[in-house]
Amino acid sequence: MSRRPSDLTRPRGGTRFGVHYDPDAFGRFSEAIAQFLGTARYLVAQTIVVIVWIIVNVVAVRLRWDPYPFILLNLFFSTQASYAAPLILLAQNRQAERDRAQVEGDREVTARTLADTEFLAREITSVRLAVAQLVTERDLTRELGRLTTELEALRAEVAQVAQPEQPTEPTTSSEHQE
Asked: Is residue 157 part of a domain?
């Protein structure tokens, strides 16, 4: 009778062959190789090695380990290319991931900057509106002048009302007769 796992929603683990590597360490290694292969120093060194290889195999008859069609040299170049191309592609993929993360960070910074700018624009607008509604010295002087005029008019009215009327002299009947 076979044992069944209790959780059938997850696939069971596959067999591992015991080969474990750190993807980041391998990525850093591939970037270092790609960076080295892309330098003028490498191209000059490789050119010197090829020239020496050809001279030794053409001129030194006793030291010929790779005669004229230079098949061994061709094999070295093929091997180098077969390893260099994937390493360079891996380095480019890692760089593309870093660029994507950088672009995403730039988008976030841009969005925050835009939000801050819009907030500051609204604040400046509200300050401008508040300043436009402030009372100026001219406004105060004009209003005080108007209030002073009204106050003087009220005083004059109060003075007229408060002043008793001048009694008129009573006329006697003899004065009426004359």
From this structure: no
